[in-house]
């Protein structure tokens, strides 16, 4: 049976360290051909070299999105949504001298309607936006094949995993991770080792 991973923030007070890191980010807006915002579009940050997915985000009600904590390199963005063709940005570079990038609006073209025979197929969305949570359907993306559960988690919207395996959600490091409804109660290193040894095909959903 595939497992369900749930991650949420805990309300804890902590003294922040003095060390600061350089914040990197790319932001933009998803619009339709009438320049109306496209809400809940799936935004994928991809390496220009091999088109591997680095991070996933979801557009807001205003169609806006931002992805932070991006390693230096060359990337492009793809934007997809139901009833629209996928839109792709130009290649951009994140570097020491160019830490933040604001993209031109990504215009999504509607899917052309065919007058021929209609075949209805049901395809699970990669990202489902609920009122109280966001669901990542792991098997809805072919890019997750062969990945570990930790790699899939790291690509999920708002989630960051540092080199020591510490998990943060929307910049908050006080998080609780539950597997199949049960708190993990593992240290960061133990949890990272567990998820790093778990194949993505053992995971059905990530709830954030």
Helix/strand-derived category reads: mainly beta
Strand order of the largest sheet: 11-12-17-1-15-16
Oligomer: single chain
Helix content: under 10%
Overall pLDDT confidence? 82
User: What is the overall shape?
Assistant: globular
Give an overview of the whole structure:
- The chain has 208 residues and is mostly beta strands.
- The protein folds into two domains: 3-18 and 118-207, no CATH class; 25-108, Sandwich (Immunoglobulin-like).
- Helix content is 8%, strand content 37%.
- It has helices spanning 149-155, 188-196; strands at residues 3-9, 25-32, 42-47, 53-58, 64-68, 73-80, 87-88, 92-94, 100-102, 106-108, 127-129, 134-137, 159-161, 167-169, 175-179, 182-183, 203-207.
Task: Please outline the helices and strands.
Layout (H helix, E strand, L loop, with lengths): L2 E7 L15 E8 L9 E6 L5 E6 L5 E5 L4 E8 L6 E2 L3 E3 L5 E3 L3 E3 L18 E3 L4 E4 L11 H7 L3 E3 L5 E3 L5 E5 L2 E2 L4 H9 L6 E5 L1
Parallel strand pairs: 1-17, 2-9, 2-10
Antiparallel strand pairs: 1-15, 2-5, 3-4, 3-6, 6-7, 6-8, 11-12, 12-17, 13-14, 15-16
Key terms:
mainly beta; Immunoglobulin-like; 5-stranded antiparallel β-sheet; globular
Short description:
The protein is mostly beta strands and 208 residues long. The protein has helices at residues 149-155, 188-196; strands spanning 3-9, 25-32, 42-47, 53-58, 64-68, 73-80, 87-88, 92-94, 100-102, 106-108, 127-129, 134-137, 159-161, 167-169, 175-179, 182-183, 203-207.
